[in-house]
Write a structure and sequence with these properties.
The chain is an alpha/beta fold. Helices cover about 15% and strands about 25% of the residues. It has 5 helices and 12 strands. The strands form 2 sheets. A 7-stranded mixed beta sheet has the order 6-7-8-9-10-11-12. It has a 5-stranded mixed beta sheet with strand order 1-2-3-4-5.
């Protein structure tokens, strides 16, 4: 649903050609994804653009929310899940650090005497390498490094979803075996970042994983125009765009 970095694209106040582009594919809200079958719907991350992202989607139950890490651009939209609580409490899965951050960010959702209408959240601590069974899906969390911060990636069937990665320990590769669809972060082409990989890093990682198709996400305005970027990339590695639907 969203493919941008913490600032989004366009960046407020920026006059670069990407931020001024009229191509809808150059509008990048904060990273989030829906993974769904006819019977089960998972949301990966719920950032501050969630309301805008979900409005075009059919209104039906969200069975679980998977949080990658505690940064605001990945969980700042949690209050906006309120309409979906008419289907019942929403189960949210996150590592201990992200769970603690959510308790601090949304204390009114977990108070003993909750104000009527606040989101009904069932918060569950999860650990890497312990699989979850949610409806039609088996979900395997694994660890990537966001600079010095360990965060979660998710393996869901043939899909591997990773955001905000700089490096990954070699021991985690076993959890990616058999990946056919890889979604992974690529900040820009140059100017190394201490906590995010660049396009060349993402391409090398995709080759190591051996995915049949890779989509690049968490890209900032420095990466360039969507149309131009995709002309530079191999056919099996493409820049994703907001609202893109992929069947697997």
């Amino acid at each position: 649903m969203g493919t941008g970095t913490s600032c989004g694209v366009p960046v407020i106040g920026c006059q670069c050609e990407v931020c001024q582009s009229t191509d809808p594919k150059d509008k990048r809200t904060r990273c989030s994804a829906l993974v769904e079958t006819d019977d089960t719907r998972l949301l990966i991350d719920c950032g501050p653009d969630f309301r805008q992202q979900i409005l075009p989607q059919p209104f039906r139950k969200i069975d679980a929310i998977l949080i990658t890490h505690a940064h605001y651009d990945h969980m700042g939209g949690m209050d906006d899940i309120r309409p979906y609580c008419r289907f019942g409490e929403i189960n949210v899965y996150a590592d201990p650090s992200a769970c603690q951050s959510m308790l601090q960010m949304l204390p009114y959702c977990f108070a003993e005497n909750r104000y009527p209408g606040v989101p009904a959240i069932g918060l569950h601590e999860i650990m890497p390498h312990e699989s979850l069974h949610i409806g039609d899906f088996e979900v395997m969390p694994f660890v990537v490094m966001h600079g010095k911060l360990p965060i979660l990636g998710y393996r869901i069937g043939k899909l591997t979803y990773i955001t905000d990665m700089k490096t990954m320990d070699e021991g985690e590769m076993a959890y990616l075996e058999g990946t056919e669809l890889l979604v992974v972060n690529a900040l820009r082409f140059d100017k190394p970042h201490h906590a995010h990989q660049l396009v060349d890093d993402a391409i090398a990682f995709a080759r190591k994983v051996g995915a049949k198709q890779t989509y690049l996400i968490h890209s900032c305005h420095d990466i360039g125009l969507h149309e131009v970027v995709n002309q530079k990339l191999p056919a099996d590695i493409q820049m994703a765009y907001d609202g893109q639907m992929v069947f697997f």
